[in-house]
């Protein structure tokens, strides 16, 4: 047998050993935190990679020793005040927005924005209040009554007779006579940026429901930005979460983003009571973990290859530097 053929056989054996080494992965379900501070983290969200839906991967950040939850957007990171899963939305705050303590001291601000390619949208339930706008560039006037029935006909003006301008939440008449206020809902991020170019500052008010069930009369204004999100429910996830099947956690493979059911005894693509998982106790590539061969095995195989090459070279015939088909190694 020629040295080249012998080496090929030996290399094939080594690769087979590598592939047959058992996986030493841990169960991803133990790595998925279920809360950040006092805010529960449930599907479709996850604050650990591989948990939840890949739609929201890296969108939520939990910091400060697991006490501070933030939403990452193109315009920055914003503290999350609450998450509702029954009425899918997040309530976030913007530290740069005007608040009651500012009164007529307007600080530099920035426009809040959401990436349109994500599964987040800024809720139409938000009301934006703009202060001290340039009347030569912004139409500031009271909106007529018919605007309530036909709001599309009044989009171009900023309503100076807004109820919220006359009844600022939590701070009454915090604005002095030198400050003007109007209400306007920008339909796009660019519209918000244009408004801020011609107004001193702005704030967002979200109409929060008390749950009394008498909408819209059970709502009250609260400072913040409501961000709606899609709830991607799949049959696989429902099967994974089924408590009669040991109740797993829905997640995904961090390399392929394919669905995975994260269980205490390992991870699988079906559910935690799957006979395959129960029998073998471990499945191959797992989200958020590394499926790898032990370092000792890798070093051993590498040493074997080095030893074999030296042995082959030692037995190769001496031909005074002339290489032939008989002594060729590579």
Automatic annotation (TrEMBL):
The keyword Transmembrane applies. The keyword 4Fe-4S does not apply. It holds the Pfam family GUB_WAK_bind. It is found in: Membrane. It is a single-pass membrane protein. Keywords: Membrane, Signal, Transmembrane, Transmembrane helix. It comes from the Eukaryota. Residues 32-93 form the Wall-associated receptor kinase galacturonan-binding domain. One of its GO terms (molecular function) is polysaccharide binding. The chain crosses the membrane at residues 283-309. Residues 1-27 form the signal peptide. One of its GO terms (cellular component) is membrane. This is BnaC05g09810D protein. It comes from Brassica napus (Rape). The lineage of its organism: Eukaryota, Viridiplantae, Streptophyta, Embryophyta, Tracheophyta.
């Amino acid at each position: 047998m020629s040295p080249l053929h012998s080496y090929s056989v030996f290399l094939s054996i080594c690769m087979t050993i590598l592939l047959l080494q058992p996986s030493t992965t841990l169960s991803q379900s133990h790595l998925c935190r279920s809360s950040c501070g006092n805010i529960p983290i449930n599907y479709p969200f996850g604050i650990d990679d591989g948990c939840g839906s890949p739609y929201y991967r890296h969108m939520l950040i939990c910091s400060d020793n697991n006490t501070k939850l933030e939403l990452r957007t193109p315009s920055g990171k914003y503290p999350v005040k609450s998450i509702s899963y029954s009425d899918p939305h997040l309530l976030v705050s913007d530290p740069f927005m005007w608040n009651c303590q500012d009164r007529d001291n307007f600080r530099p601000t920035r426009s809040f924005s959401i990436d349109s390619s994500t599964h987040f949208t800024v809720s139409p339930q938000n009301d934006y209040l703009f202060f001290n706008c340039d009347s030569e560039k912004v139409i500031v006037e009271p909106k007529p009554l018919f605007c309530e029935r036909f709001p599309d006909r009044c989009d171009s003006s900023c309503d100076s007779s807004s109820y919220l301008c006359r009844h600022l939440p939590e701070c009454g008449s915090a604005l002095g006579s030198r400050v003007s206020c109007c209400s306007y809902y920008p339909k796009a991020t660019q519209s918000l940026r244009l408004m801020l170019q011609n107004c001193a500052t702005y704030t967002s008010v979200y109409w929060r429901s008390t749950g009394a069930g008498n909408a819209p009369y059970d709502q009250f204004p609260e400072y913040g930005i409501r961000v709606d999100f899609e709830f991607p429910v799949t049959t696989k996830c429902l099967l994974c979460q089924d408590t009669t099947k040991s109740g797993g956690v829905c997640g995904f493979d961090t390399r392929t983003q394919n669905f995975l059911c994260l269980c205490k005894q390992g991870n699988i693509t079906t559910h935690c009571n799957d006979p395959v998982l129960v029998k073998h106790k471990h499945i191959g590539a797992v989200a958020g973990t590394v499926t790898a061969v032990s370092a000792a095995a890798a070093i051993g195989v590498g040493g074997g290859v080095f030893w074999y090459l030296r042995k082959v070279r030692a037995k190769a015939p001496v031909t005074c530097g002339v290489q032939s088909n008989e002594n060729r190694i590579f």
